[in-house]
Each structure stands twice: as structure tokens, then as C-alpha cells.
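Can't paste images in this forum, so I'm doing it all in text. The chain is below; anyone willing to post the predicted C-alpha cells underneath?
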Amino acid sequence: MKLAVIVPTHGRRELVLDFLRHLEKQHRLPDEVIISAPDESHIPPYRSERMQVTHVFGRRGLAAQRNQALHQALDHFDIITFFDDDFLPAPDYLDVLLNAFKENSDYSVIMGSVAADGARGTGLSFQEGLSALQTSHRMRPARVSVIEHPGAYGCNMSFRSKQVGTLRFDERLALYGWQEDIDFTSQLRRHGRIVQLSNLVGVHLGIKSGKVSGVRFGYSQVVNPIYLIRKGTMGVRFGVNLIGRNLIANLARSFKPEPYIDRRGRLQGNILGICHVMTGRIEPEHILKL
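Text version of the structure:
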């Protein structure tokens, strides 16, 4: 099986460089790494004798950048793996991944277990991420557990190229994209199972730079799930719970917000999104005007 790793990035040159150096330590190297960015200014100088790294440039936005790289990769590789530029896979990640696809023909989408997720807090430094990865390796259970999911977490997700066909990431989910991973991978369920494997491990640093504004993100927290529910790629209960949890968190914490999250901006975006939904205006791309 030939495998390509695709890494969308924006405004994180140094982080991409650290990521590539880390990826080069994989027991089984990818056949190609494709960095997808708006232009060359987002790409660090990097040369490797062991790993082929190419670039694709074009429209800004996570969904658009994913699609640009997919266009380049689909006809040449059996497996496509998407990593965030702040995701650190364990050294055996790609080896375990390919074995899982080879041994389980009913697996359509695979994602790993996130041993530590900085996105849930202040974020992790690169060294903190490496330390968490080492700790997770020592504590990894001997028995592999397989968990079914409605869709994959975009920081690390893999699928079979032949099953993609004309499916692409929805570019109406503009900029940060939020829930574009669930939208895309849930549509691959018709080909097989979407699973999370306990022996496939990585750490998500959750770096805060390069994200959209609080108002824009808050708007997406409401409008994107409603859009996907209407589209049929997100369950009603899942989507409503997602909106409710975020709205309650933003409201409760807006009185004493965390220094690393714009809770008041998110709440403002939530309210605007609710107003638009109530008037029948369900336009995820409206964040481009905010």
C-alpha cells in the first residue's frame, strides 16, 4: 500500500518544520508528504534524503486546502492520511495504520487515540507534546480496543483513496472549517466502518495561533452543525448537543473567560448565528463577512 500524508497549514512555518522533523522518525515513512498552504510564505525550508515532501498552493481555508492536496494525491496513493500541523504521531503510527487497513477490509476510515489534547486547554509546547507521547507509549494497553464513531477527528484521520470518488470537503465551511472532518468522513460510512484504534496514538498540541476570531468561530459553532444536519451528514441529536455544550460553555465562562479563549467573542458569534438560523439564513460562509 502506498500512503500519502497531507498537512494543511497557515501561518505556522516553524511548527511545520518541527512537525516534518518529527514525522521523519516514523518506523514506516510515508511515500509522500504534501503540505497544503495558501502560498510559499507559509512553508519553511526543508530538505530530507529519507522523505519526499511536496507543496500545493491555492485558496485559503481548511476545506479548500484539504481539497487542493486531495486533487494531487488521490490517483497516486492507496491510503490518504491527514495530520494537523500540530499533531505528533507516535513513531509506529503509520506502520500500525497500514496493518489495520490491510487486515480489516471493512475499515473505511481510521483515526487514532489522542493521548493528550492541548486544544482542550492552553495548548502544549512541542517538548510537552513529546513528553506526553512518551508517557502514552509506556501506558499503552496490551489489548487493542476498537471504537465506532460517527466521523473522524480531523487532526488525524485516514481513509482509502478508492472510496473517495468525487467526494470533497465542503468549502462552504469556510476558513477554520469547523466540523468539515465529520461532514467528509461520515459520508464514507457507506463503504465501511469509521473506527478509532487504541494502539494508534498521537498527541494534539492545540496551538492557538492561526485560528479564526472568536466571533467567527462562535458563529460557526451554531451555523455549521445546523447546516450539516440539513445536509444529512450530521445527526440531529449530535448536532444539537454540540451547539448546546458550546453555547452553555461560552455563556458561563464569559463572566471570567480563560486568557487563551475569546469567550465573549464566541458568545457574540453564537447569538448572531442563532438569529440567522431563526430567520432561515443558514450560511456557514457568512463568517467571511464578519
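The first helix runs from residue 13 to 23. The beta strands are 3-8, 32-37, 53-57, 79-83, 87-89, 107-117, 146-148, 156-160, 193-204.
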